[in-house]
Amino acid sequence: MDAIAMLKDRRSIRKYKNEKVDRELMKEIVDIARWAPSWGNFQIARYTLVDDREIIRKFATDAVKGFGYNIKTLENATGVAVLSFVKGKSGKLDKDEYATSKASSWEVFDAGIACQTFCLAAHAKGIGTCIFGVIDDETISALVSLPGEETVAALIVYGIPDESPAPTPRKSVEKLLRFI
Ligand SMILES: Cc1cc2nc3c(=O)[nH]c(=O)nc-3n(C[C@H](O)[C@H](O)[C@H](O)COP(=O)(O)O)c2cc1C
């Protein structure tokens, strides 16, 4: 797949075929996503892939704050990645203090890069994704027994797409870009 087309054509997918994605394929996608850059190359992102329908149903009822849009997407989902990260590392250099005014925010930054890399890798392999920010991270941590050193960054619903959404609007380059 051409890299520029891949970047431009990825869409959030909210309708999926009623078919689980092969775990080996998901392993390949994480194998690609692990090449994402990270603060100090600490590689703090973790992926817990859930293809158990009962847990996915629990995500819908208990872990998306009753947000109808997300409940609807989860109703036909066959896979959900819990993207988490190891706390307290990114943002620090040799000392235990944070090196910049953004303090620990760099860990969320790292998770964001990992998230997009995972979504693009999935897209390149024909798997659709939808990032969920409207989530209840504590409930999700408990549902998947997340290790105590990690916290949830986002859910990424994944599966075989059953829709081809039209491109979503984007701001013009003139609005986004400044040269000095
Ligand atoms: C941090 C973040 C949080 C998001 N949260 C949700 C969400 O909770 N539910 C949802 O349906 N889409 C969610 N989205 C998807 C956005 O709505 C979507 O990326 C945006 O509308 C652009 O559409 P596209 O992804 O198809 O290009 C989220 C995206 C990001 C990056």
Give an account of the 3D structure.
The longest helix is centred in the middle third of the chain and has 20 residues, at 105-124. The chain has a single domain (3-166), classed as 3-Layer(aba) Sandwich (NADH Oxidase). Helix 2 (23-33) crosses helix 5 (105-124) and helix 3 (53-62) runs antiparallel to helix 4 (68-75). With 180 residues, it is of the alpha+beta class. Strands 1-2-4-3 form a 4-stranded antiparallel sheet, sandwiched between helices. It has helices at residues 3-9, 23-33, 53-62, 68-75, 105-124, 137-143, 173-176; strands at 45-50, 79-86, 128-132, 150-159. Flavin mononucleotide (FMN) binds at residues 11-12, 69-70, 73, 130-134, 165, 168.
Tell me the name of the CATH class. Alpha Beta
Reading the helices and strands in chain order gives HHEHHEHEHEH
Instruction: Give the low-confidence spans.
Output: none
Terminus-to-terminus distance: 34 Å
The CATH architecture would be 3-Layer(aba) Sandwich
Helix and strand composition category: alpha+beta
**Strand residues, percent:** 15-25%
Question: Could you please say which CATH topology applies here?
Answer: NADH Oxidase
Summed up, the helix count is: 7
Helix content: 25-40%
CATH superfamily annotation: NADH Oxidase
Mean pLDDT: 97
Broad shape: globular
DSSP strand tally: 4
Radius of gyration: 17 Å
Give the biggest beta sheet: 4 strands, antiparallel
Number of domains: 1
